[in-house]
Design goal:
By secondary structure, this protein is α+β, with helices and mostly antiparallel strands. The chain folds into 2 domains: 103 residues, Rieske Iron-sulfur Protein (3-layer Sandwich), CATH 2.102.10.10; 243 residues, Naphthalene 1,2-dioxygenase Alpha Subunit, Chain A, domain 1, CATH 3.90.380.10. Helices cover 26% and strands 27% of the residues. It contains 12 helices and 25 strands. The strands form 6 sheets. Strands 15, 16, 17, 18, 19, 20, 21, 22, 24 and 25 form a 10-stranded antiparallel beta sheet that branches. It has a 4-stranded antiparallel beta sheet with strand order 8-7-6-9, with no helix packed on it. A hairpin with a 4-residue loop joins strand 11 and strand 12. The longest helix is centred in the C-terminal third of the chain and has 15 residues. It is globular, with a radius of gyration of 23 Å.
């Protein structure tokens, strides 16, 4: 049984027994079990917001969304509202979107360009780097030194980018972003190299919510076990109307490999990254061939779902971010990744394929969302002690540097996620 040198006691899990952090996950070499209260316990959820989303590197933006000084967007780090802005000197900042006066959000727009943010409540203003610009009606209103510690909006401790992906952490002692990525970095490079001209460009997001815990989306995107069952009708419908060939549908059911990483990252991979007609595919390969040798091109063309712990998927056509809203409500933002340096028709076909498969009105996406709600309902059972995630345990190939390679239906990705989740929760 996994354990911690420090015993972390928390409230009961709703089944009448007090739980330690070490009681949440069983990992004994034969079994890998997870207590379903990881989806339902409110105290545990609050601990996740503090011990995972504030201490880990969390994805917040892509540099293509912040090309000019003054560009900004708003998002969340866990439940922490933040502004991601490029200041007048070109640096990217992650600012807590809460006025230092009375806590109102100072920016209520999803994105835009501004030199400053002015609180709509009492008018306190801040530069786009977070510095305090001015206090409304300040003269004579405060004793000398009363505002000495109010120097601007709170900031993330560190902000770093990799291949256009912007991450932040509120932990000043966190390792570097490259250290956090670990062995998954080479797969991120392959994903980024899908765009012949670096880096790709994000379109504004498609936003949706589901009635379930945030970890369900984290687990599911790298799950090669469920498609043959959950998405069977979707593939049969697409085949029936000639949208795709049965051969391609069969290929999608037999994903090539899954990977798990010691930092909690995970990958589902296999099949062609670009579902294009032969003419467009030849054009795309030619564009890639101008920058890479044939071996590298073939690696780039492999379809991947890359999960970077704890909140983002890099998929073949999109970036998908996971934003917890409550213990049983999660927002997902899906950003189409437009390739640069290719025939525009390639991006048009890629976008249509993404909408057809993973949009909320697509053939595959709704299956997942309905299942998340079903899991949230079932996890409230007082009879269910454990969820079993033991599939493939012991037959994985250890590639070194904390990377495990496994068969497509093995639950190696889910175990990687929960091992890192457990490490942080029990710290």
């Amino acid at each position: 049984m996994m354990g911690s040198a420090v015993e972390t006691v928390r409230p009961t899990n709703g089944k009448g027994r007090a739980m330690n952090a070490s009681d949440l996950v069983v990992d004994n070499g034969t079994d890998f079990w997870v207590d379903p209260c990881v989806y339902t316990d409110q105290e545990l959820y609050r601990s996740e917001m503090e011990k995972i989303f504030r201490t880990s590197w969390v994805y917040v933006a892509h540099e293509s969304e912040l090309t000019e000084p003054g560009d900004y967007l708003t998002t969340h780090v866990g439940e922490e509202p933040v502004i991601v802005s490029r200041d007048d000197k070109g640096a990217i900042n992650v600012l807590v979107n809460a006025c230092r006066h009375r806590a109102a959000v100072v920016c209520r727009e999803e994105r835009g360009n501004s030199k400053a943010f002015r609180c709509p409540y009492h008018g306190w203003a801040y530069r786009n780097n977070g510095d305090l610009l001015g206090v409304a009606q300040k003269a004579g209103a405060y004793k000398d030194g009363a505002l000495r510690d109010v120097d601007g909006l709170h900031r993330a401790a560190k902000v770093e980018s990799y291949r256009g992906l912007v991450f932040c952490t509120f932990d000043p002692q966190a390792p570097t972003l490259v250290e956090h990525l670990g062995a998954v970095r080479r797969h991120v490079d392959l994903w980024a190299d899908m765009s012949p001209e670096p880096e790709g460009r994000l379109l504004p997001p498609h936003r949706f919510e589901y009635s379930g815990n945030w970890k369900m989306q984290a687990e599911n995107g790298a799950d090669g076990y469920h498609p043959a069952v959950l998405h069977q009708s979707a593939f049969e419908t697409l085949d029936h109307f000639g949208v795709r060939s049965r051969a391609l549908s069969n290929e999608m059911l037999e994903v090539g490999k899954v990977r798990g990483f010691k930092e909690g990252h995970a990958i589902l991979e296999g099949g062609p990254v670009a579902r294009l007609n032969p003419k467009l595919l030849a054009s795309y390969k030619a564009a890639l061939g101008e920058r890479h040798d044939e071996t590298r091109v073939q690696e780039i063309l492999l379809r991947r779902h890359i999960f970077i712990f704890p909140n983002v998927y890099l998929m073949d056509g999109n970036i998908r971010t996971i934003l917890p809203r409550s213990i049983d409500r999660t927002e997902v933002r899906s950003y189409f990744m437009e390739l640069r340096g290719v025939d525009p028709a390639i991006n048009e076909e890629r976008l249509a394929d993404l909408q057809r498969r993973l949009g909320t009105a697509g053939f595959i996406g709704p299956d997942d969302l309905e299942t998340f709600a079903a899991v949230q309902t079932g996890s409230r059972s007082r009879s269910l002690d454990w969820m079993v995630m033991s599939r493939g345990l012991g037959r994985e190939e250890d590639l070194g540097d904390g990377e495990l390679l496994a068969l497509p239906s093995d639950e190696t990705p889910q175990r990687a996620i929960y091992r890192e989740w457990f490490r942080r929760i029990s710290a």
